[in-house]
Prior knowledge:
single chain, 438 residues, alpha/beta, Rossmann fold, 8-stranded mixed sheet, 7-stranded parallel sheet, 45% helix
Amino acid sequence: MINGYDIAYAAGIVAASPYWLLAPKVRRKVLSALKLRMGRVAPRQGDEKVVMIHAVSLGEINATRALVKGLGEAREDLKFIVSAGTETGYERGKQLYGTDPKVTLIRYPLDFSGAVGRVLDGLRPAVVVLMELEVWPNWMAQCNRRNIPVILVNGRLTPGSYRGYRWLGPVSWWMFGRLAGVCAQERVYADRFVGLGVKRERVVVTGTMKFDTAEVSDRVMGDRELAAAVGLRPGGERIWVCGSTGDGEEKIVLEQYRRLLGKFPDLRLVIVPRKPERFDGVAEQIVDAGFGVFRRSSSSKLGMGLGSVVILGDTMGELRKFYSLADVVFVGRTLLDMGERQHGSDMIEPAALGKPVIVGRWTGNFTEVMNALRRGEGIKEVANGEELGRAVEGLLGDVESGREMGKRAREVVESQKGATGRHVEVILEQLGNRRTEK
């Protein structure tokens, strides 16, 4: 039955239509969501217990790997539904689970009551697990109506999100009050969840699962093959990898690269943008900056008559291999303020490989990770492009210092593992324990 939230969502879409209808990129996103995220799923066969895990985007989808593995080892009879809210998250989900018979991958439904109801009735999860924060009113209402417990894991609440939910008043209290459990990354997050209406006895501090997804190693399988394919010579030249970069950062990186070439003529640059839709634009930026560009996806070369050739990592799932080849790493979406939801990218993967890692100051989405790396002196923070260039220069000029920094970072990653096991225990407690309160 249509309710007030449905009407509000529909009114919002209609009110914003002059904007999204005229903006091609936004129009494609909206129309794709309305087509693919309305809960049209094939009904599940069988009566096995199913855990549904929702992850919005790429980083959260990656974090589901260890959770699915841990739950599967604890209960071999379990099956899983993994849902993603973004295109990049869904594509990564296909890479991780496309051939796993125990995992069904779906697109997370928009929060219309009909879409949510179709998913829950068709797939019949025994428990729903939300990664980090995704709490929506119709979702909570429909799960509550079916007595399906909802658990929030790897929970975090930034100051901005906390203020936004507080502004919603009774709506937030109703939603959060119906969570069966919250696994918070840090005590400050736990207190904020309680402040939004979660019963304190249902909140536990478990740490972050992000460390558990990182594989600690010296090398990544296939990294040398990748190097040969793109023309890199690890050990024979210096390699600077800039991963998960955001809009505006590539320009800064290219400016610093030009300067650094004066001191390190053998320095090679690899740029791997965060969003696939930016690949073509970044390729053009590289040529406009006076460099050649080698595109990994097609082995195409542009601007070969220009200066040094920059490698553009425009494929999915190879960032870790590029990190494995690096002498120094810059992790993007940290140098410029791209909005609270875009503050930071995963700096754990290069840290787990023992690489010296540089980030900017906009790392709010990885607060707990950064705190641990700061305590362990395993990360270098910079405020702007000039500081970024000096940091890269320092690490390339003092190889031993960079090696020691990378070693400390890897030790931090190893010491922080274990949160996934604590999350698994909380989820297992809820299996077969459907709530009855309304």
